[in-house]
Design goal:
With 221 residues, the chain is of the alpha/beta class. The chain contains seven helices and ten strands. It binds adenosine-5'-diphosphate (ADP) (2 copies). It comes from Thioploca ingrica.
Length: 221
């Protein structure tokens, strides 16, 4: 249901270039949790960005339920990103002028129910699940880093994405919050038979994955 074939990414800077992804192939089933580990600079973030439609690869194909992500125009890719893919990054990247509720509902602009009540109720539910029931109307700058991260996780889940791409989602959270977030992600995975692809340095988390893959100098092993 989620496949990448022969992915290549070359960065050019000045007269130099670096091959950050070299012939990366991966196929992930529904309901599967794949952990990606690897040293800093091995290409993990580049891989997630290309898989999620944020950065165009130099070569190769990304298929999400048979839709060829990089063959679409910007609009088509934005639709896929907002309806089928949930991103959780190291940095929360919330919109500062929207409340928590507004940030979580933002991807709903791309789903048929838009900003209707059903979606608002769902957003409230998700914020409750990440422990922010009392912060619905707070703005990002009123939240701690850990809280902002949890808002971003709720936002990533609002459209029941079939692929969740997570880059160190619990990186700087305390153990208790980390456990709650992992529980939420894995429950979501089972309920919606989604796919979870997570970059992590945490070997305890990696051990809970169905598969652990290692990135090494742009190659996936
Ligand atoms: P990781 O996430 O595993 O730390 P990255 O995907 O960030 O690895 O980086 C892979 C390689 O590509 C590294 O050598 C990094 O320096 C290089 N790189 C990443 N982003 C850029 C960029 N925007 N321009 C040039 N080189 C980059
Ligand atoms: P964490 O353990 O998640 O890092 P903090 O110690 O940063 O939490 O924050 C503790 C409390 O202070 C939280 O309830 C948070 O909402 C509040 N808080 C943190 N930063 C701010 C801020 N800039 N403005 C208002 N409230 C804040």
């Amino acid at each position: 249901m989620f496949t990448v074939k022969e992915l290549q990414k070359i960065y050019h800077f000045g007269t130099e270039s670096i091959e950050a992804l070299q012939n990366v192939n991966l196929s992930v089933k529904r309901g599967e949790f794949v952990a990606i580990i690897g040293h800093s600079g091995s290409g993990k973030s580049t891989l997630l960005s290309v898989m999620g439609g944020l950065m165009r690869p130099t070569g190769g194909v990304v298929l999400i339920e048979d839709e060829d992500l990089w063959a679409k125009n910007d609009r088509g890719r934005a639709r896929i990103r907002n309806t089928k893919v949930g991103f959780i990054f190291q940095f929360a990247s919330l919109i500062p002028t929207l409340t928590c509720l507004g940030n979580v509902m933002l991807p709903c602009l791309f789903n048929p129910k838009g900003l209707q009540w059903a979606n608002q109720e769902k957003a409230q539910q998700l914020l409750q699940q990440v422990g922010l029931a009392d912060k619905l109307h707070a703005y990002p700058n009123e939240l701690s880093g850990g809280q902002q991260r949890r808002v971003a996780i709720a936002r990533a889940l609002i459209n029941n994405p079939i692929v969740i791409l997570a880059d160190e989602p619990t990186g700087d959270l305390d153990e208790e919050t980390e456990a709650e977030i992992m529980k939420l992600l894995l429950t979501n995975l089972r309920q919606h038979q989604a796919t979870l692809i997570m970059v992590t340095h945490n070997l305890d988390i990696a051990q809970r994955a169905d598969r652990v893959l290692q990135m090494k100098k742009g190659r996936l092993q």
